[in-house]
């Protein structure tokens, strides 16, 4: 593990979100960015991904021979977002590149609906193979830092539930500029720290593999500091942003001032989550215990009749 400072403020002025040592997510008192501190080193997190992260995510066969598995509704929804916003705000695109394309579901959807070239970049070999075999996609088994697309620039990049995994999202987004044509577009989707999954307790939702959690405000700041102008946003359980590459990266990371409200908003959102989650959990738990009790009672009643 290694110590971290706030990506946006460069200092450690933080408050822990939960009373636990690992993973320990904190919120910056100055800007409201949520990050993990201490966090796994790059070596530790890549060992974690290789050991079991993907295996936890349902039946992906390491050999990629899993063609019959249906496309998940969440992936369809994410694909639709890219397609609809492209049609609405951009018009048409010639080439789309997805960073961290996983099994290729979103990218294949985008290719088929926008009728464009589609390239995937995916560090997991198993996932890259699955995406290529299942959808006939060109997938580069590489990281964002290492990938070489032989000068083929993208008109749009897609990063869906990827940015929160990076150790340095700003550096990663600056690297993304190398892959984009001038004035190119970037679609980013991340979990929304202001709308935690209401079916999960916070200690489950705040995940070890997530170095950051963003609001639309903090994500917009990181994008601005990497030289992207945010054009459209949508927030639900996720934050969705469409941003356009600007000619230069602003100097001194001073593209957008911190909002004093972010810190307060994060604490308020997490408190609201706990307030809603636990009574609901108690009711569901009681209902399931009751129904189990009833099942036991009726099965012993059946037994009595048999006797
Ligand atoms: Zn900060």
Overview of the molecule:
The protein has a domain at 57-259: Rossmann fold (3-Layer(aba) Sandwich). The protein is of the alpha/beta class and 307 residues long. The chain has 8 helices and 11 strands. The strands form 2 sheets. A 7-stranded mixed beta sheet has the order 6-5-4-7-8-11-10, sandwiched between helices. A 4-stranded antiparallel beta sheet has the order 1-2-3-9, with helices on one face. 37% of the residues are buried. Helices cover 40% and strands 20% of the residues. Residues 6, 8-9, 28, 30-31, 33 line the site of zinc ion (ZN).
Question: Can you tag this structure with a few keywords?
Answer:
binds zinc ion, Rossmann fold, single chain, 40% helix
Q: What are the SSEs and their pairings?
A:
Elements: E1 14-16, E2 25-28, E3 34-36, H1 42-53, H2 73-90, E4 95-99, H3 105-114, E5 117-121, H4 125-135, E6 138-140, E7 154-160, H5 169-179, E8 180-191, H6 202-205, E9 212-213, H7 216-225, E10 228-235, E11 238-245, H8 261-306
Parallel strand pairs: 4-5, 4-7, 5-6, 7-8
Antiparallel strand pairs: 1-2, 2-3, 3-9, 8-11, 10-11
Bound molecules: zinc ion.
């Amino acid at each position: 593990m290694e110590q971290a400072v706030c990506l946006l403020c460069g200092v450690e002025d933080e408050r822990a979100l939960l009373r636990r040592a690992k993973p320990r997510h904190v919120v910056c008192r100055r800007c409201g960015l949520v990050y993990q501190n201490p966090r796994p080193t790059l070596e530790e997190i890549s060992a974690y991904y290789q050991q079991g992260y993907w295996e936890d995510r349902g039946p992906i066969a390491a050999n990629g021979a899993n063609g019959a598995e249906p496309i998940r509704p969440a992936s369809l929804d994410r694909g639709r977002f890219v397609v609809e916003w492209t049609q609405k705000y951009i018009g048409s695109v010639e080439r789309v590149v997805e960073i961290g394309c996983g099994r290729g579901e979103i990218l294949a959807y985008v290719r088929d609906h926008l009728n464009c070239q589609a390239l995937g970049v995916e560090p997991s070999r198993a996932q890259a193979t699955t995406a290529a075999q299942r959808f006939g996609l060109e997938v580069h088994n590489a990281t964002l830092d290492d990938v070489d697309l032989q000068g083929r620039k993208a008109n749009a990049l897609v990063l869906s539930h990827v940015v929160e995994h990076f150790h340095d999202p700003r550096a990663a987004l600056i690297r993304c500029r190398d892959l984009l044509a001038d004035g190119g577009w970037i679609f980013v989707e991340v979990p929304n720290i202001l709308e935690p999954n209401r079916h999960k307790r916070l200690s489950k939702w705040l995940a070890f593999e997530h170095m950051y959690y963003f609001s639309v405000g903090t994500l917009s700041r990181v994008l601005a500091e990497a030289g992207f102008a945010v054009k459209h946003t949508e927030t639900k359980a996720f934050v969705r942003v469409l941003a356009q590459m600007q000619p230069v990266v602003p100097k001194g990371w001073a593209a957008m001032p911190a909002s004093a409200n972010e810190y307060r908003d994060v604490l308020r959102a997490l408190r609201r989550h706990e307030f809603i989650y636990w009574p609901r959990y108690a009711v569901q738990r009681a209902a399931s215990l009751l129904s189990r009790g009833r099942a036991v009672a009726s099965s012993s009643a059946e037994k009595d009749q048999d006797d």
